[in-house]
Amino acid sequence: QAQLVESGGGLVQPGGSLRLSCAASGITFGFNVMGWYRQTPGNERELVARITPGSSTSYADSVKGRLTISRDNSKSAVYLQMNSLKPEDTAVYYCNAHDFSTGYDLWGQGTQVTVSS
Description:
Helices cover about 0% and strands about 55% of the residues. About 30% of the residues are buried. By secondary structure, it is mainly β.
């Protein structure tokens, strides 16, 4: 069945780096715009970064210049390189696949990122 599995979260000090990975299965990866979202308790899930099948990217203003989204269509995987992390980046990060041919949205289970000294 269709599935997204995230990995790479954890605890990191301010200024540090993490790389999140999301492995997709059961979907036509090339038809999907892939995105990373994040959510903190009591708040709505917000878009962090998005990448099209052709690798056009867009970012939330709060992460521009620090986070980089990329994808490997041959591996059906999407990545989020997170540099110069700040405490306000602490959240559960979710991988999303949006199929532009069907409008179907698929979500991963989330991975916790904690930025703290």
